[in-house]
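From the pipeline queue, job 12 of 40. The input is one protein chain; the requested action is below.

Action: predict structure.
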Amino acid sequence: MELIFKIRTLFFAPIVFLFFMNLTTFNAMGQVGIGTTNPNASLEIIASNVATPANTDGILIPRIDEFPASNPTSVQDGMLVFATGNGTPAEGFYYWDNGTTAWVAIGGSGAQKIDDLTDGKSDSDGTNDGSSVFLGVNAGVADDSTDNRNVGIGYNSLQDNTTGISNVANGYFSLQNNTTGIENTAVGYTSLNSNVTGGLNTAIGSQALFSTTAGANTATGYRALFSNTAGSRNVASGMEALNFQTIGSDNVAIGYRAGFNNITGFQNVFIGSSAGFNTLGNGSVYLGYQAGSTNILGSRLYIENSNADPNNALIYGEFDNNILRTNSEFQIGNPTGTGYAFPTTDGTTGQVLSTNGVGQLSFTTTSLPEWIDGGSYLTPGDGIMEEVLIGTTTSADGKLLVFSGTKNAAIEVDFDGTADYGILISRSGSNIGLKYGIYNDLGGFSSSFTNWGTYNNITTSGNGVRIAIYNTVNSTGTGNKYATWNYIPISNPGTHYGIYSDVQKANGYAGYFLGRVSFGNTSLNRYLMPAADGTANQVLTTNGAGVTSWQNNSNSTFALAKIRMFSNYVHPRTGWVKQVFDAVTFDLGSNFNNTTTYRFEVTEAGYYRISGSFRSNANNATTNLFGVSIYVNGIAVKANLQNHHGNGTIIRTVESVEALNIGDYIEIYYYSTSTLTVNNSSLYSLFEVERIR
């Protein structure tokens, strides 16, 4: 320490010198003692009483309100001052660090909270102070210091965040560009670096999810999902898993470089180191080390522990072609027990699959008898259909030819005018149960040609009545009577026709009914047509219990509602938020709930025209996004989301026509991430629904 005494006059100099000498003791080594005659250092100051010191025992370092306008020099490196707290610097001791050319605080009250640190920041809006914490140069520098519940640790972590909430960034440049994205977690060097507005992402690992701007992705490992920009709901775990994926969604990759080169694929599953390494398509499943790593096509299945091709992989499949292949011995159960194993190669034509009784199947050649008892039928043993003749070959009457090659008929019956019936079936007796005079089952035909259960062709001349099918029911029992019964199971493909009529004559009838007519798809869901015609302009009306009648037309009772707000609405600035419409202008169908759910509830299936709109309460100079959207069952079906032009009021309108079912519900959502007060005027801010068909 250098002691400088500036003596203004010669008169005071001796007095000051004698006073100083009375207080200070010097020794031969140049040491200075104050309160002691035996200093143990260059300067030692002893209190007047160690146990009960006076309030003057101590030293006063120079006190300042502001740091000097000109920085000290290198010869003053380490110079000590005390800031009073009455100026810019916080109260406390500071020393000059010439190496950094800065005044550095020394403990004490120099830094009382994170905000006092040069590389620290915390929210300080007066409520829940400390809910956001940032440590590191530029960490959270743009945060609006409200209760955003963000944590950023590391150089430039969460640097651009303004209003994004519940984000965690730990690492150099992690979540650097995030502004309004929410609930993201980034741990590692430059993890989630490019994300701006995406939310619900988790990135753990150096450069994980580096390029993403979308949401709901999870990446664990070095450069996992590194190139992803717009893809969502992807999961990548492992070094460079899904490394080049950019816009694909709903992919899962677990393992080193799993799905490495997949760029735009959707709905793929890669499990195993380098599984699906080169796959470019969608909807594939790969399981095992290098499984399908050389394949580039989508909709493929590989279960293999190497890079084997489709002809050598343990299990291979094609989802788009419904193919499942095993390139190994296929077993059902354990062949050493009660199970059996299939052959790995095909047999020759005509061979059959047989078992050796100890678990091994093989294709073998066997000789068959002329006819085989198939249980309900006799079938040719050699598989070759041959004709069976019952009767004579010369007489037309009484000849029954099974599988007639001459007429291409399964059964050929020839008769001339002396016979009255081609086939006569008579049944008597009282046995109960179903009985069939003729039963046709063509289920075994796989041809694309037309199959006829019964085909009648009448070509005779003359003027008599011709009837292709004539059924008379004369039974006197109490059971139901059906002259014709047609049944087609719902599982059958193609278009189904219970009765199909094609009448070409202009004055003919495709259907002519005398008696009551009923329609429907089940015995309980049907309706009865009126027995007589109505008057002009009447409409066919049902009573809901299966009876229709002709009634005079009445006005439509379709749902129609117009809803507004009782008061202005202040948007919470959190993106899409359901709007509370609580003032009913009219609601003809009583569909709108304006007290609890604030939504339109559908009670009749049909087509509905839906519109929503709003206008801000005042002019707005921002250029942020504002929007209005129609939600059906909690899912957006149409939206109008645009940036404001920076001048005047904000006006947004959306309209859509939707096919809705009973139980569906409709809501209107508003979008804003900045200040927005919606005017409740019935001219601008409305929710309207009209059933149109």
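Job complete. The mean pLDDT is 84.
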